[in-house]
Design brief:
The chain is of the alpha/beta class. It has one domain: Rossmann fold (3-Layer(aba) Sandwich). The protein has eight helices and seven strands, in the order βαβαβαβαβαβαααβ. Strands 3-2-1-4-5-7-6 form a seven-stranded mixed sheet, sandwiched between helices.
């Protein structure tokens, strides 16, 4: 049982697609979870299928989807950090570090979850990952939370090895699926395949459930 989990990502749906199983796993143990989402993903290219959003309405829709996903996963404290999508790499890194440091001081999490620096592809992902690790390193060692990271860049296993944090999330898979469904403007392609499998044969349904039933993360070496 963790005391408090702090999740840090740049976009709505990062929390669900990258680590939704971990969030639901801890939240449904009764652990408080805070999610600091740095943008509203307003520059995303997906508008739903058939399209139900446009460039002007997308931020509002994605915020609504994010709030619904947080409810599904059990996140009880959502912080919208107010940055613009696809600009985090151009922000003052020290400002990001200070804001994340303020969250760490306020919340005092026992566990922090973010992306693995240099292995998370998107410039916004990298900006938050690097700022997060720097903010944690500025804390006295006795106050540092554990840091678990998600990596998905090509070749990450060759560089980092196998994931060392494996969570059995089978008991919370439906919450993760509901969060995927909440982010429908972004997940429609993958969601359609999952829904087809869930409504298919017994074996197809079993395989679909398995996609939500285990999650692996890396412990970041501070």
């Amino acid at each position: 049982m963790e005391r408090h989990v702090l999740v840090l990502f740049p976009h709505p749906d990062d929390e669900t697609l990258a680590v939704g199983g971990a969030i639901a796993y801890y939240a449904h143990q009764g652990t408080p979870v805070t999610y600091a989402c740095f943008t509203l993903g307003e520059m995303g290219r997906n508008m739903g299928n058939p399209p139900f959003a446009n460039r002007e309405t997308l931020p509002t829709i994605r915020e609504r989807e994010l709030r619904a996903a947080c409810r599904a996963l059990g996140i009880d404290d959502l912080r919208l950090m107010g940055y613009r999508d696809k600009t985090l790499e151009f922000e003052d890194p020290q400002r990001l570090v200070r804001e994340i440091g303020d969250l760490l001081e306020e919340i005092e999490p026992s566990l922090l979850i973010t992306y693995y620096p240099d292995y998370c592809v998107h410039p916004d992902h990298e900006a938050i990952a690097h700022a997060t690790i720097e903010a944690v390193r500025r804390l006295p060692e006795a106050k540092r939370p554990k840091v678990h990271c998600q990596a998905f860049a090509r070749g990450h296993e060759a560089a980092l090895g196998k994931r060392d944090v494996i969570l059995d999330t089978g008991s919370v898979w439906e919450y993760v699926y509901r969060a995927w469904s909440a982010h429908r403007s972004q997940t429609f392609v993958r969601l359609a395949k999952v829904e087809e499998a869930l409504n298919g044969s017994e074996e197809e349904r079993r395989q679909a459930v398995l996609t939500f039933s285990q999650l692996g993360l890396y412990t970041y070496p501070l």
